[in-house]
Amino acid sequence: MGGKQSIPKITSQDRAILDLKLQRDKLRQYQKKIQVILDREGVIAKTHLAAGQKDRAIVALRRRKYQQSLLLKTDGQLETLEQLVSTIEFSLVEVSVLQGLKQGNDILKEIHKEMNIDAVERLLEETHEAREYQREIGEMLSNSLTTDEKDSVQEELRQLQADIDMEPATDIILPMAPITHPIKQRNTESASGEEGVKVPITA
């Protein structure tokens, strides 16, 4: 059986953002309701005016004007809510980035502790000493050989190079064998009266 999947922890910031978004959605629904009332009051005013009932038409228009003022107020509230949600979400992103930077800075500090200046200098000194030791060994070997021995070493080197140059190349491409037709070969055999090499006919 597999392990249980970890459930992401819901923080107080997440709850706050969720509440703000719920309020935003309610305001949008309220705006749709107000828009329906505005359209209806406009139709009522027009109907009363067509029937010659001017007073009732004015009352309908006043009610419509009041609903328009409510719609303007909800527009302002909705804009405030959306700005607040965006600000909180952006602030959470900034906090996450800062935490990442802090972790990266801590890692760099640990690396710097492991690679201190003394360790680097000691490593460079050891490398320099190894190179000097190798140079000294080379000079000792060179000085311990006589002139004839040095000439002999050079001769062996030339001989090794000559042997390498004389080795056959392994990447030579051989030419393809000519292809002869079996029927023409049989005709040639019957004309000369001599028996040639039989070539099997493949399908």
Most strands sheet? none
CATH architecture of the largest domain: Orthogonal Bundle
| Secondary-structure element string | HHHHH
Q: Can you count the beta strands?
A: 0
At CATH level 3, the topology of the largest domain is Helix Hairpins
Counting DSSP H or I runs of 4 or more residues, the number of helices is 5
Shape: elongated
Q: Uncertain segments of ≥5 residues (pLDDT<50)?
A: 185-197
Q: Strand pairing plus helix content: what structural class? A: mainly alpha
Mean pLDDT: 77
Mind telling me the CATH superfamily name of the largest domain? ESAT-6-like
Helix content: over 70%
What portion of the residues fall into strands of 2 or more residues? under 5%
Domain count, please report it: 2
Q: Please report the first level of CATH classification, the CATH class of the largest domain.
A: Mainly Alpha
Radius of gyration: 49 Å
Q: Could you give the distance between the termini?
A: 61 Å
Protein name: Snf7 family
Subcellular location: Endosome membrane
InterPro entries: Snf7_fam
Family: Belongs to the SNF7 family.
Describe this structure in words.
The chain has 203 residues and is mainly alpha-helical. It folds into two domains: 103 residues, Orthogonal Bundle (Helix Hairpins), CATH 1.10.287; 52 residues, no CATH class. The chain is built from five helices and no strands. The longest helix has 61 residues. About 6% of the residues have low confidence.
Task: Record the SSE blueprint.
Blueprint (H helix, E strand, L loop, with lengths): L11 H39 L3 H61 L2 H28 L2 H20 L15 H11 L11
Helix pairs in contact: 1-2
